[in-house]
Amino acid sequence: MKCLLLFFCLFFACTVQAKKERRYGKHNITALAVVNNGGNGVGISYEIMLNDKQNMSLLFPIAATVTDFEKSPAQYNYAGQQIAPADNSGRVKMYFFAPGMRFYPTGSKGIVRYSFGGSFVLGSGQGSAHDLGGADHLISRTIYGIVFDNAVYIQPVPQLRITFEFYIGPGHDDESDLITSGVIYQASIGVGYRFGN
Asked: Which of 38, 77, 83, 168 is the most buried (most CB within 10 A)?
């Protein structure tokens, strides 16, 4: 029993010492895989801590997405042959910028951390659509809104950060002058490098 108690005391002392020696940088650059209203894509974000406690930060993510769509799905027979083409199909490429602020209730230093915050999202892009007559039409699309952000971080070492992030909020989707209100969202997984003093 005494050996077990001694082991736990030593483990706790080593953990506290290791925690003191860990230095977490104020800057973070993360590569992202994203899924949002604009489709699937990739992105990169830069985050800077605003104070010495490292519990508040500014975030500047950008992302590029691509989505394929069919306004009215194509029809197929039982043999898998297309009998009626889609009324309107095409592809839209979009670029997103979502600057925001994050708050870390327990600070950003540690192996597992959580943050929440808000961001303004702006996405814009163009693409082409094909109609039944075979003609191509240019489509422009803009998405914007204010979202609430949640994120969980795993930092096995101070320089490495694995991010799981989700944001959702009210917004507008302006596709070729057809403006619709609704929900805008994004889910992302990222791997980042944390550096600086």
From this structure: 38
